[in-house]
Each structure stands twice: as structure tokens, then as C-alpha cells.
Amino acid sequence: MAASLARLPTAAPSPRRSRRAGDRLWSVGLVAAGGAILLVAGLVILVLGRAAAPAFHALGVGRFLAGQDWDPVSGAFGALPFIYGTLVTSAVAILVALPVAVGLSLFLAEMGPPRLRPPVAFAIETLASIPSVIYGLWGLFVLVPWVRTTVEPLLGRLLGWLPLFTGPRIGLGYLSAGLILAVMILPTIAAVTQEVLRSIPPALKEGALALGATRWEMIRIAVLPTARAGILGATLLGLGRALGETMAVTMVIGNAPEIHASLFAAGYSLPAVIANEFAEATSPLHLSALAALALVLLGVTLVLNSAARVLVLLTSRRLGEAS
Amino acid sequence: MSAAPQASPTATKISVERLDAWYGATHAVRGVSLEIPDRAVTALIGPSGCGKSTFLRCLNRMHELLPSARAEGRVLLDGEDLLSGEVDPVDLRRRVGMVFQRPNPFPTLSIRDNVIAGFKLNGMRGGRAETVERCLRQAALWDEVKDRLGASPLSLSGGQQQRLCIARALAVEPEVLLMDEPASALDPIATARLEELIHELKERYTIVLVTHNLQQAARTSDQTAFFYMGELAEAGRTEQIFTNPRERRTEDYVTGKFG
Ligand SMILES: Nc1ncnc2c1ncn2[C@@H]1O[C@H](COP(=O)(O)OP(=O)(O)OP(=O)(O)O)[C@@H](O)[C@H]1O
Ligand SMILES: [Mg+2]
């Protein structure tokens, strides 16, 4: 196509031709860059796969994925506690962070006094720039004690009839890890959500207000439905960060390779166990099992990512129909 | 809807007294006084940037949406001052509806839900299906969309979308309808339909229409107000403004000498 266009005789002076050459160079560069990214991703999967192969062979893929015991000394390698811990903490993080981030963004973009916007935006950005080990320390010294003495007793009293909120209240566990992740992904979700809200045509909001909508009603009928796909995308970004976060999680999750229904219990996560045990793993099977966990983590991330992407596509398709 | 006594055709619906409006330091509307008759079409004309939209937006306090904008003076709707602190803008906008320059249906709602969006918001009584049909008929859109009320409004043409927005505005049963260049994004045929529609609507509603199209003003309106640099240069019966203007500036404008 490009070639046949280039062969067409044109009366265009040379600047146009050189611009076309520039375009071509640019697109070649883009393709190369995109290819390089795919190549690197492919190599990562390849290397991990080769490192993980012995573990999958020795244990069987099904038994490895569904295994609930992890004891390197006795040679038991089950991935389920880590998968479970990663999913549960990320779910808690999203459930807590999403409403807060969306509420905060709506407040900043639509309701709050404009004077308040810069300081709050600055505070959110600052949150994003704090290293995760600091979050971990803050979690240990502040969040975990608070969760133990206040949050868990409160939840136990109010919702103790749910298995989620039962058992000993130690502070270290899924709940603390989820909450710390919530704080960490809040800035990401809030920043993208604000961007999305800013891109909503003012005409749409005026249309709602002109019908006698209050601010809140305007948000409900004009802003949120239009922003839905974008907010989903923001959540996806936050989720990606939550799934992969290592340091802060390992400092507060309790690092126990177990599965518990209660959020108060100690657990473990995929990135945390990989980071903690890799340096000390002695047996080749242990090393290989850790590589297999990494592959699982990659798989979980990819599956959730694509699922969310499909959702975004579906919602934005509905929005953009025929436009 | 309102308990106001049945007005005679020449009664005043909105009376604007010495209205000034600013955007920050920009003095956009300067001491405008104008009587807007009930159940008639008032056209606002004038060169670009002369304050027509600003004036219009003061009539339902849409100007307040910009933090930098403010207005002073009196705008009496049935004798009640809109700009005083006592009037709730949300209630006001239900009584004084607005149609915008570019059609702005809610893209995520169906055609049907667009029509009754405001109706639902305001908790109005009455059958929803009947309301949808009545408003779409009033907006001269019913026949074109009656078979696809569940479709997205984005599947409609620009002119149809604009009529949908009119139907949406009618569903809250306003007393006044403000239209800011409603035909500027429409082709001549859609524009002609819209003008017909305006003609029908003025039986029941007070209409204020901003337009750059002088023929449109001449065809559709009963009263015309000519704005010039923020001031109301001249207002009067449409026929008089176009055939026998008192002001030189008006004459120059309507005869196409400038603008
Ligand atoms: N959002 C705004 N912020 C600052 N100044 C504004 C704003 N909107 C309008 N103005 C200024 O107010 C004056 C009147 O603008 P207005 O939009 O009322 O004119 P108009 O008669 O509707 O023009 P047009 O025919 O081009 O729509 C102009 O000088 C314009 O620059
Ligand atoms: Mg205007």
C-alpha cells in the first residue's frame, strides 16, 4: 500500500517527499520498538518456562497449581497458597481503593472548591512516589497495630458472622496487605480517573444540569456512565501494580504459606515468596518451583489484564457505537 | 403546570432589568433591559462575541457553572427575581430549559431514556411511555425513531439528535425554552424542520432563540433583540427590526454591512 502510493506521480515539491520519508522512518522505528517489546516479553516467558520445566515435570502441572502445601525441606511444592494470597490481597486493595479513588476524583473534578484541587492533587502524587519499602515500614509500625487493635475488632463485631472476618486478630495478614496495597494503588487509579473525568465533554454535563439535575444527579447520568470504560482502565492499572507488589506485601502479610478463609489470617503472595526464597533456595527443584511460581504470576497478570481489557473494549464499544 | 393565570399573548414572561455579566474582568453583558413575551419567539442576533450566549445563560443561571462568571441586575420570571439568592438554580432550570448549539444527548442512554432522563430526575408523575411518545411527537421525531427507541442516540443524524435534545427538554415541561444557535450544526433541510418545530412550540412555550442566521430570525421570531458589544442596541417587533430599524448599527447589521 505504502509502496504503491509512493509510486504515484505527484507534483508535490520535495518537502512533502521528505516528510513522507520521515513518516516511513518513524513507522519503521515504531514497528521495531513494538517488536522489541514483544521479543523481550517472549524471551522472559521462554527463560522462565525453561527454568520452571523441571518442577512441572517432577510435580505435575495440576498438582503444582492446586497443591496447598509448600515445604521445600520435605519437597512439597504447592502454588495455591500464593495464588490465593495474591488474588485475595489484590481484591481487597481494589475494593477499598476504587471507591475512594473515584470519590476523591469526582470531588476534585466536579464538586469540591477549585482551590482545594492543587494541594490534594499534590498529596496524591506524593503518595505515588513513596518507595514501597517505606510503605512496608509504615505498614509494620502504624497500619498493622491499628488493624489489630481497631479494624479487626470492629469488623469482627459488625461482620463476624462472615467467615471472612473470624479467627485470631494478629494484624499481620491478608487484610493488612490488602489495605497497604490499597494505599499504594490509590494514586494510580485516582490520577487516571481524574484524567478521564477531565476528558468528558462539558456539553454533556451542561445538558444534564439544564434538565434540572443536581450536581450529584449530573454525575450519575452524565459523568459516571461516560467515564465507565476509563475508570475500568484505571482499575486495571492499579490491579497490575497490586498483583506485582512485593516488598510492602511481604512485610505485612505474615509470610505463611497457608490458605485461610479469614482475612485476619496470615498468608503469602507470589512475588513475596519468590523474593524471599530465591536467594536461599538450594535444591534445584526448589529453584525450579520458584520459577514456576513466577510463570504463574505472569499468567495471572496476563489473564486478568486481558479480561479487563476486553471489558474496557466492550464498554467503550457501546459508548462509541456509530459515532 | 404553574398556577399562573392564563396569560394573554402579549404578557411578559421574563423581564430583564439592567443586567450586567462578567467573566473575570471581561464585561460581556452591559446593562441590558429586555421584556420577553410569553408564548412567543424572541430572537437574539448580533455579531460574534456580543454577549448573546452570556445573556441567554443568565436566564437559567447556567453562567454560574463558570467560577469566574457573575451577573448583576434583575431577571424576573413571572415577577420572581432569578438572580436573588432565594431561587434554587435546580428548580429554575426545570422551568427554563435549554437546547445547545451542538446536540448533546447522553451517549450511554437509549433514545427512550434520553427523553425521560430529566422527567425521571425530577420525579415527575405520569406514564413514561406516554411521555416519551408525546415529547417525541412534539419534537417532530416520533415517526423517525418509534421503531428503535432502545437504540443509542448516536445512531441518529445530527438534526435528529438535536430534536431528541428538544424532546428531552420538553419532557420536564418547562415554561421557557432557551435555544443557543440550535441549527448551527444542521443542514438546510433539518434547519427548516427545526424552524417549523419552533413555530409549533411557541403555542405552548416561551422561546428565546440565539441565531446567526438573520433569515431564520426573521422567519421564526415575533420579537428580535440586536446585541452589539455587550449592549442591547435595539429590540422590537421582528418586522420592525428588519424593515425599519431605528438604529444605524441595527440597519447596518441586518442589511449585511458588517457582522
Ligand atoms: N468562558 C468564558 N471565559 C471568558 N470570557 C468569555 C467566556 N465566554 C465568553 N466570553 C467572552 O464574553 C463575551 C461574550 O461572549 P458570548 O459567548 O456571550 O458571545 P456570543 O454573542 O454568544 O458570540 P457567538 O455568536 O460567537 O456565540 C466575549 O467577549 C467572549 O470573549
Ligand atoms: Mg454564543
Q: Which strand-content bin applies to the residues of chain B?
A: 25-35%
- What percent strand of chain A? under 5%
**Largest sheet, spatial ordering of strands of chain B:** 6-7-8-3-9-10
CATH domain topology of the domain at 80-256 and 296-322 in chain A: MetI-like fold
User: Might you state the CATH topology name of the domain at 12-105 and 175-254 in chain B?
Assistant: Rossmann fold
CATH superfamily of the domain at 12-105 and 175-254 in chain B: P-loop containing nucleotide triphosphate hydrolases
Order of helices and strands of chain B: EEEHEEHEHHHHEHEHEEHH
| Count of helix runs of chain B | 10
Sheet having the most strands of chain A: 2 strands, antiparallel
Strand order of the largest sheet of chain A: 1-2
CATH architecture of the domain at 12-105 and 175-254 in chain B: 3-Layer(aba) Sandwich
Overall SS class of chain A = mainly alpha
By secondary-structure content and strand pairing, the structural class of chain B works out as alpha/beta
Mean pLDDT of chain A: 88
Q: What fraction, in percent, of the residue positions of chain B are helical?
A: 25-40%
Number of strands of chain B: 10
Q: Unreliable runs of chain B, pLDDT <50, ≥5 residues?
A: 1-8
Bound molecules: adenosine-5'-triphosphate, magnesium ion
Task: Describe the protein's topology.
The complex is a heterodimer of chains A (323) and B (259).
Chain A: H1 2-7, H2 14-59, H3 61-66, E1 70-71, E2 76-77, H4 80-111, H5 117-129, H6 132-159, H7 174-198, H8 202-210, H9 215-244, H10 247-252, H11 270-278, H12 284-320
Antiparallel strand pairs in A: 1-2
Chain B: E1 12-23, E2 26-37, E3 41-45, H1 52-59, E4 69-77, E5 80-81, H2 89-95, E6 96-99, H3 111-121, H4 128-138, H5 142-145, H6 158-171, E7 176-180, H7 188-201, E8 206-210, H8 214-220, E9 223-228, E10 231-237, H9 238-243, H10 248-254
Parallel strand pairs in B: 3-8, 3-9, 6-7, 7-8
Antiparallel strand pairs in B: 1-2, 1-4, 4-5, 9-10
Helix pairs in contact in B: 3-4, 3-6, 4-6
Adenosine-5'-triphosphate is lined by residues 23, 26, 28, 46, 48-54, 66 of chain B.
